[in-house]
Amino acid sequence: xQIRLTWINTRRRKIIAIIIDFWISILLYNYIYYRDLNSYxxxxxxxxxxxxxxxxxxxxxxxxxxxxxxxKSFLISILKIFxxxxxxxxxxxxxxxxxxxxxxxxxxIDQKDLLLKDIFIKSIFNIGFLSLISQYFIRILNYKIYDKxxxxxxxxxxxxxxxxxxxxxxxxxxxEIYFISASEPLKVNKSKNLKGIIVNENDIIxxxxxxxxxxxxxxxxxxxxLIDWFDKEYHRIPTDFIENNYQLIKKLKSIxxxxxxxIKRLGDIFVSLIIILITLPVIFIVSFLIYLEDxxxxxYTQTRSGLNGKIIKIIKFRSxxxxxxxxxxxxxxxxxxxxxxxxxxxxxxxxxxxxxxxxVLFGSMTLIGPRPERPxxxxxxxxxxxxxxSRYILKPGISGWAQVNYxxxxxxxxxxxxxxxxxxxxxxxSFFLDLLIFFKTIKLVLNAKGYKPKKIIIDNNPNTN
Length: 465
Description:
Blueprint (H helix, E strand, L loop, with lengths): L11 H26 L5 H17 L11 H25 L3 H4 L8 H36 L4 E6 L1 H11 L7 E6 L12 E6 L7 H12 L3 E4 H9 L10 H7 L6 H21 L1 H15 L4 E7 L5 E7 L23 H8 L7 H7 L3 E3 L6 H10 L12 E3 L1 H5 L6 H17 L2 H17 L18
Parallel strand pairs: 1-2, 1-3, 3-4, 7-8
Antiparallel strand pairs: 5-6
C-alpha cells in the first residue's frame, strides 16, 4: 500500500503540538496515579485520557496557529482549557454513573473509587495548566522562528501573476508575493524572510532562465512550480492553473491499490455501523419531528453521479418543504425560505446526512470522498468547470476534503473552488488523510459551521450539493 503524506509537511508544527500534548497528559496522569497509589494505572485508561485531551483540544481549535498575541487570545486559551476540564469531569462522572456526585455517604461509596476520582480531578487540572503553558510556548516559538519567513517571488508572466493574486483572494491569510518578469534574468539575494521562488513552467522555458533557476536551487532556495505550490501551501489545486491534461495526469494517482481499497471498505462498514448504532435514538427523534412539522415524507432521495459517472441514489432526512423544487432546482442560499424549521437544525449539525450511512453500507458511497452531484446540474458544470470529470475517479463520500475546507457551495465559482480541493484529495488520498477529514468533520458538526453559503451569488446554474 502506497502512503501519501504530502499534506503533513505544512502541518508539522500542529502534529508536534498534538504529540507533546498527548505525552503531557499520559505522563502527568501516570505520575499522579503512581504518587498516590504506588502503582501504575491501566494503560487503556491512560491512553483514553490522552486521546480525549488531544481530540477535544483539536475540536476547540487549541492547535491553530496564532495570528497575533494579546491578552484576549490568552484569555480565550484559558477558557478553552476550563471547558476541557469541565467536560472531562462530566465524562468521568457519566462513565461512573454519577456515583461520586450523587452519593455522599462515605460508607456506601467505595474508598478506592473516591481516591480514583481525586486522582482524575487532580490530573486533569494539572494537565490543563501544563498544556496551556506548553502550547503557548510552542506558538511563540513558531511565530518568532518560522512565521517570519513568508516572502515568495513569482517568476513568470504578469498576466499569470495577476491571476494568482485573484485566486489568493479566496484565502483570508496569504503570504507576500513579489513579481519578477520571466523576460528578465532572475537574480535573487538571500533574505531572512525569503521562502522560495514560484514559477509557471510554461513561462520560463528558456535556457538562461533554467540555468539561473538551477543555480538558485543549488544555493539552497526553494524553487517550486505553481501547481505544486498550491498543493503544498493550500492543499488544493486550482483548475485554472492546469494548462493541459498531462499536468493533471501527473497529479492524479491511479486507484489500483486494491489493498488500500479493501481497508477503506472495511473501515467504511465498521464505522458506519458504529455511528448508526450510536445515533439510533437521534434518528427516531428526528424522524418524528420531521413528520410532526408538516406531515410530509421523512426521507428524501436524489439521483447523483457516483464512481466513474455511474448514477446512484442517495437518501437524506428531508430538510426542505415538500414542494421545494416545484419550480425546478435552485441554488441554496442564506435564509432559504424552502428549508423547514427542523431542517435548519438538521443542516447545521449535518444530521440530514445520517441516512447516507446506509448508502455506504450498500457500497455506492464511502465515508470520505468527493461529494456526489446531481446529473442535471453536471451538464452545466461540464461546460463551465474545467476537468470536472476528474472527480469520478473515486467513489463519492458523505464528507470530503472540500467539505471540511470550504463553505457550502452556492455557485459555479464555489464548485470550481471545491473541485480544487477534490483534485488535491485524489492526488494525496490515504488512510491518514481520511482520518484527518473524519476529525475535521466532527469539529465542523460540533461547531455547526460550514453549512451555509458565505454570501449570496446570483447564478443561473443550480447546485444543491
